[in-house]
Amino acid sequence: MENTWKLHHVGIPVRDLDKSLEDYQALDMATFQPEFLIDSSKIAEYLVYGKTPDPIVKTRGVMGQLGPLGVELLQPVEGETVHKELLESTGEGIGHVAYTVDDLEEETAKLVEQGFPVILSIKHADQTTRGAVYLDTRSKFSNIIIELIQAN
C-alpha cells in the first residue's frame, strides 16, 4: 500500500493570537500570511463530533512557515471547538498534524475503521465532498490529532 500523505502543517492552539504572533516575529523565527477567520456559520458543512455546533464556532488563525515547517496558529473566539478543547485540556502547543492526501474519503474511512473517530468535518460551498477532517488519534499518538486535507 502506497502512502500518499504529505506533511502540510502543525496546528497550534493559542490563547492570544496577537501575542503569539509578536513572540514569533520578535525572534524572527517565522513568516505569516494574513489572518483569517473560521466562522462555522459561513461554511456549508461544519460538524463538531458529528453535529452542527450551537452556538456557532469562530476561530482566528494564521498560516505561516517556520523554516521548512508549515504552522497554523489558532485562537478560539466563540463556541465549542476542538481547538478550545485542546487549550482547556493540555494548554498551548501542537494540537494537530495536518497532511494532504490524494483521496480524503478513502483515507478517512481507513482511520475510522481502525477506531479513530472524526471529530471535525469541513465542507465548503464550492466542494462536492469534504475538504478537511480532524480524526481523534490522541489515544495512540501522544495526544496529537491528525488532520487530513484533500489535495487539489
Mean pLDDT across all amino acids: 93
- Helix % is 10-25%
Number of domains: 1
How much of the sequence lies in strands comes to 35-45%
**Number of E-type strands:** 10
What is the distance, rounded to the nearest whole angstrom, between the alpha carbons of the first and last residues?
A: 21 Å
Order of helices and strands: EHEEEEEHEHEEE
Structural class: alpha+beta
What would you call the shape? globular
The main sheet comes to: 10 strands, mixed
Number of helices: 3
CATH-derived architecture? Roll
Relevant CATH superfamily: 2,3-Dihydroxybiphenyl 1,2-Dioxygenase, domain 1
Reading off the top of the CATH hierarchy, the class is best stated as Alpha Beta
Cα-based radius of gyration, to the nearest Å:
15 Å
Are there runs of 5+ residues with pLDDT below 50, and where?
Answer: none
User: What is the third-level CATH name, the topology?
Assistant: 2,3-Dihydroxybiphenyl 1,2-Dioxygenase, domain 1
Oligomer: single chain
Helices and strands in order:
Layout: E1 6-13, H1 17-26, E2 31-32, E3 36-39, E4 45-48, E5 58-66, E6 69-78, H2 82-90, E7 96-101, H3 104-113, E8 118-123, E9 132-135, E10 145-150
Parallel strand pairs: 1-6, 7-10
Antiparallel strand pairs: 1-7, 2-5, 3-5, 4-8, 5-6, 8-9, 9-10
